[in-house]
């Protein structure tokens, strides 16, 4: 089991720290916000597809914070468990055993954010 007690708590705590960084590093955070917006807006791929790709990368890179934020967004975008599981399967294919462990984290986050 992950050492994360709650993905809602995790994303909330990270959001607080990111707000603090916005105050101390406004140019960095504004630029990061622009990058995030550009990387997730509708284009040849729709926003949900791009968020699914981001989740797959988060799992393969083993970033629990990223998993939390992307799953939270995917729930808001109406992603089904089957869609999420397909992406997790690809992430495990690309990242092996460690990605398998983090894929279970993403399923846990889905369960939590879907309540």
TrEMBL record:
Record-annotated Carboxymuconolactone decarboxylase-like domain positions: 26-108
Record's protein name: Carboxymuconolactone decarboxylase family protein
């Amino acid at each position: 089991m992950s050492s994360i007690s709650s993905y809602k708590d995790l994303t909330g705590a990270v959001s607080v720290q990111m707000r603090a960084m916005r105050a101390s590093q406004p140019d960095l955070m504004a630029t990061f916000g622009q990058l995030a917006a550009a990387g997730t807006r509708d284009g040849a791929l729709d926003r949900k597809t791009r968020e699914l790709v981001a989740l797959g990368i988060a799992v393969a890179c083993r970033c629990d914070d990223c998993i939390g934020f992307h799953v939270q967004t995917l729930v808001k975008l109406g992603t089904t468990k089957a869609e999420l599981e397909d992406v997790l399967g690809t992430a495990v294919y690309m990242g092996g055993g460690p990605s398998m462990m983090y894929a279970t984290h993403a399923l846990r986050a889905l369960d939590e954010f879907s309540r």
